[in-house]
Amino acid sequence: MRQARMKVSSEGDRAVYHCVSRVVDRRYIFGEAEKEKFVQFLREYEQFCGVEVLTFCVMSNHFHVLVEVPQRPEVLPDGEEVLRRLKGLSGAAITAGKAAQMLAMFAAAKDEKGAAEYLEQFHRRMWDVSEFIKLLKQRFTQWYNGKMGRKGTLWEDRFKSVLVEGEGDPLVTMAAYIDLNPVRAGLVTDPGKYRWSGYGEAMAGRRRSREGIRRIYGLGVRSLEVTVTEALRGYRVRVFSQGMEGVGGTDATGQPLRRGIEPAAVEQMLLKRGRVGMEEYVHCRVRYFTDGVALGSRDFVEGAFGRFRQHFSPGRQSGARRMRGLEPELFTARDLRVNVFGGGEGAAGNFAMQ
To answer: In angstroms, how far apart are the furthest CA atoms of the chain?
Structure first.
């Protein structure tokens, strides 16, 4: 008999869960394309279900998600809001257009009860960790099976979940554990260089991942007033310290029991207090280096801005935008990712109705 999942009711307080699910037979199905698609679906269902992904990591045969589920609101989304969320889902069985037709039909018949019952099928899939993970896995399975011409289940039993204390050291420890997975697996030596994780996305300037790390660190120090810069630098120090090689012990020959970050790299990070240098920055695949109009010193970028003024909006007064969080200073003529590591700001599936 299955043991009931330990889950806070949707009417209760907010809750944070560490969720893990593995591919059937532990098969290695996640290549780069599969990881990219999974992250896309992850973000789509995050917005639809009304949860917040604090961090995540997609590995070759399993995934980790640290998700915060807020308290279910007293006033549930109306038809307009439900349609907005549906529009964010790519390939949904119930499309926004189909739902709009149904709601219009109820409105024409002045059937408020029918409309409320129709919306309830969407409401019950919101603010619930089980529904969020189930829909995410269903959608990825649909996409993967279609791509590979296969049928049947893709996942090993139901997902596992751990209820995590939503503040203080336990939350930061769990988040760091998730983001360190690629290091433990020997895929990278710096977790920031693994792009299919919350920390890796934050290093690449992704807004939602930066906000997730800010919230993790803010809840960890019990102050949500921390800036993104403060949070990302502090979290980087924590991740490196927790992931240092040898922290988990050594064998009889003195070798570390598991892979980790070299002590010298940890020491350097502590000395820099979490700041990112040029070498780390270059490895983050940031769009500055491919999409920017100009990149260089302030004077260089301002000069390029003046020469190509017609390519910018009439209201723009200056060209240089500092890439904050980087030392030494660099500037870009386009505000794509204004803060690679800290600072200011610069959908899915087969929605089964069963």
So the answer is: 78
Residues 6+ apart with CB under 8 A from 92: 86, 348, 349, 350, 351
As a whole number of angstroms, the distance between CA 154 and CA 137 comes to 9
Residue, of 340 and 306, whose pLDDT is higher: 306
- For residues 226 and 210, the answer to whether their CB atoms sit within 8 Å is no
Segment 144-160, tens digit of pLDDT:
999 999 999 999 988 99
Residue 255 has pLDDT above 90, yes or no: no
Residue 116 Rama label (left phi>0; alpha psi -120 to 50; beta): alpha
Q: What is the pLDDT of residue 91?
A: 81
**Do 236 and 341 contact (CB within 8 A), yes or no?**
yes
Ordered by start, the domain boundaries in the chain are 79-125, 165-274, 281-332
Q: Are 283 and 276 in contact (CB under 8 A)?
A: no
Sign of CA dihedral 78, 79, 82, 87: negative
> By percentage, how much of the chain surpasses pLDDT 90?
62
310 pLDDT band (50/70/90 cuts)? Answer: confident
